[in-house]
Specification:
Blueprint: E1 10-14, E2 17-20, H1 21-40, H2 57-83, H3 85-90, H4 105-123, H5 127-134, H6 138-152, H7 181-202, H8 209-225, H9 244-266, H10 277-282, H11 298-320
Antiparallel strand pairs: 1-2
Helix pairs in contact: 1-2, 1-6, 2-4, 6-7, 7-8, 8-9
Length: 321
């Protein structure tokens, strides 16, 4: 058994001002998200998109603002109304005490989705395209949040067997040695999901496939981790012996699989430039064979497009003569 590293939840105190480790882990998560989204600008299809405008660093800043608001508002409200609705309806002022912990990923996901839908409408972009851009940067932020839970000594795991060498006795978990489930989640839905999703998203994908992979992947890792996490005392186990976190993860897994299948069937490739309508009317040549698939290298697509453009220019010059 390992001793719990009893870390003071307050990292810095300047008079009445307290800066909690929990807040710092969120700030680190948002900073990592910003860096990773800047890297995403170099990935296909985003480096090839020109309509309605290219993906640029300024857009990353707008996305980060929306994500921060979605995570904080949606995550907090989701925790309050998914897990403790009676308490927070009776004590609404407590809702703003985010620094005491109590955030729901599922609520944060809803908040971020609504924010991306709004941003897509404002910018005239498909919202799934924006979602595909954002989600590979999410798991490391989740990892930071789970480390914050661990430092707070909250959301600990179920009682562990005597032979488990890394079991811990948490300050608020009684005298029972427990699974450090926060660290399990940090490694599973955080680090491991990031590695898998980042590797998957680096290759050219159809619109919606990356988002579907994320939803199904997160739902799977969260569902599995809940077997080691102590269910909320006021909720306990629900139907079929599953926790609230597991029941909220089931629709995510289903939605992710359905979205991935739908995206694979639709085959919308955002890296392929949209065909100008006027050019399509005037061009007598059938270029259907020149449109690259999502599996073709990005350079091939660019070369094909340039050759078609050059051909169009030649025909235009001949007709002008």
């Amino acid at each position: 058994m390992l001793p719990f590293p009893d870390i003071d939840p307050v990292a810095v105190q300047l008079g009445p001002l307290k800066i909690h480790w929990y807040a710092i882990t969120y700030l680190i998560g948002f900073a990592l998200g910003y860096v990773l989204m800047r890297r995403r600008l170099r990935h296909e299809p985003f480096r090839s998109i020109r309509t309605p405008a290219p993906y640029e660093p300024e857009f990353v800043e707008d996305v980060l603002t929306v994500v921060i608001l979605g995570v904080l508002l949606g995550g907090r409200l989701g925790y309050c109304f998914f897990y403790k609705p009676a308490y927070y309806f009776a004590n609404p002022v407590e809702i703003i005490r985010v620094w005491d912990g109590g955030m729901s990923f599922h609520g944060g996901a809803i908040g971020v989705i609504l924010g991306m839908v709004w941003l897509a409408w404002r910018r005239g972009r498909p919202w799934l395209q924006i979602a595909d851009f954002v989600v590979p940067a999410v798991p490391l932020g989740l990892m930071c949040g789970r480390i914050g839970n661990f430092i707070n000594g909250e959301l600990w795991g179920r009682p562990a067997p005597d032979w488990l060498p890394w079991a811990m006795v948490f300050p608020t978990g009684g005298d029972v040695a427990r699974h450090p489930s926060q660290l399990y989640q940090a490694l599973g839905e955080g680090l491991l999901l990031f590695i898998l999703l980042w590797a998957y998203a680096r290759r050219r994908r159809y619109r919606g496939q990356v988002s579907g992979f994320f939803l199904a992947g997160y739902g799977f890792f969260r569902f599995a981790a809940e077997f080691f996490r102590e269910p909320d005392a006021h909720l306990g186990k629900l139907g079929l012996g599953l926790s609230m976190g597991q029941w909220l993860s089931v629709p995510m897994i289903v939605a992710g699989i359905v979205l991935w299948g739908w995206a694979t069937g639709r085959k919308i490739d955002d890296a392929v430039p949209a065909v100008d309508v006027d050019q399509a009317v005037d061009n007598d040549v059938d270029n259907s064979d020149d449109v690259p698939s999502a599996d073709a290298p990005a350079t091939e697509a660019a070369d094909d497009h340039e050759s078609v453009t050059a051909s169009d220019k030649g025909e235009s010059s001949a007709s002008d003569e």
